[in-house]
Amino acid sequence: GAVVSQHPSRVICKSGTSVKIECRSLDFQATTMFWYRQFPKKSLMLMATSNEGSKATYEQGVEKDKFLINHASLTLSTLTVTSAHPEDSSFYICSSTVRESRTDTQYFGPGTRLTVL
Amino acid sequence: QKEVEQNSGPLSVPEGAIASLNCTYSDRGSQSFFWYRQYSGKSPELIMSIYSNGDKEDGRFTAQLNKASQYVSLLIRDSQPSDSATYLCAVIEGYSTLTFGKGTMLLVSP
Predict the structure, then answer these.
(1) How does strand B32-38 pair with strand A104-108?
(2) CA-to-CA distance for B15 and A92, rounded, in angstroms?
(3) For B62-87, what is each residue's pLDDT tens digit?
(4) From the list A1, A99, A106, which residue is nearest B98 (CB)?
């Protein structure tokens, strides 16, 4: 399957700082990438859909000014959590789709665990 | 509103048994179906995809699809403790956004 990487895997920051998370497709070009958030023992929650060269589409209730997404190339999307607060502490996972003959198959990155002190 | 329903579990099976995980979906237009495995603290990993009615086998895993009943299942034969994880069912219509179920936790006891 396709390989998606994320960096960093774990980050601890102080409240009020901004954190950037990178998501890369290693062996394919990703026109579309997705950003999810998952709290402990909870379901995956889609935050936004990132399209190369255009603005991201955010899910209802997700603050686009707080969670900045940039998809400047076909292999890289970034999520910046601005002015992070303890309630933003979560597991952030990106994914990308590989277009196959009948459908798009989605592959996930390994995730980034964010802890805001 | 597209919905994918899964029993949250936990589903407990002894080592060596067959684990049966079930999923129903609401959108009759759904064409592609996926099973992901997610270990605690890790991201989801694709196990299988299925597109046509019937069974699809891959090693110890068998996916079953019944579009008329809007039902997809995953069977795990010879279950191992290492299979203990949350299994996510996901469906998609053509080339669009994947809709996930909330997942079923599987516990395989030695």
Answers:
(1) unpaired
(2) 33
(3) 999 999 999 999 999 999 999 999 99
(4) A106
B40 CA: distance to closest CA in chain A (Å): 8
- How are beta strands B45-50 and A76-81 bridged, if at all? unpaired
- Chain B partners within 8 Å of A105 (Cβ): 32, 34, 46, 49
Instruction: Indicate the burial class of B82 (C-beta count within 10 angstroms; 0-12, 13-18, 19 or more).
Output: exposed
Tokens read off for B4: 């994918």
Residue A104 confidence (pLDDT)? 81
Tell me what pLDDT residue B95 has.
65
Helix (H) or strand (E) holding B93: none
Task: Dump the DSSP string for A59-85.
Answer: PTT--TTTEEEEEEETTEEEEEE-S--
* C-alpha distance from A95 to closest chain B C-alpha (Å): 10
Which residue of B31, B41, B49 is in closest CB contact with A105?
Answer: B49
The reply to whether A60 touches chain B by the CB within 8 Å rule is no
Mean pLDDT of B58-64: 97
Across the interface, whether the CB atoms of B43 and A102 are under 8 A apart is answered no
Which residues of B lie closer than 8 Å to A, measured between beta carbons?
31-32, 34, 36, 41-46, 49, 51, 88, 90, 92, 94-98, 100, 102-103
Q: Which of A94, A80, A83, A91 is nearest to A115 (CA)?
A: A91
How far apart are alpha carbons A97 and A50 in whole angstroms?
11
Instruction: Label residue B94 by pLDDT band (50, 70, 90).
Output: low
